Amino acid sequence: MTVTEFAVLEVCAPYTVDSPIIRNFLEKVGQRQSARSGYPLLFFRHEKTPAIVFLLSGWKDIPAHYDWIASEANHELLQEAQL
After folding, report:
1. When you count CB atoms within 10 A of the terminal residue's CB, does the N or C end of the chain come out lower?
2. Bridge partner list, 44
3. pTM higher than 0.85, yes or no?
4. Between the CA of residue 8 and those of 1, 5, 63, 78, what are the distances in Å?
């Protein structure tokens, strides 16, 4: 059964969503996760809190998402997110 992923991310100061390092990071996340899941990955900004970013995507099933969570590619991104 197809599942939808919805995640809430917060960009911490001194960075903003418009910081080049954050934009590059989100682009990398989108490319890697989409390549793995086969679904587009979309980002949306919170209307009143610009530091909040919503991630929306899909997965073939829950095990496919768990495989991504455990993957080296995802762990590399998580390490990079610890700016």
Report:
1. N
2. 54
3. yes
4. 23, 10, 21, 14
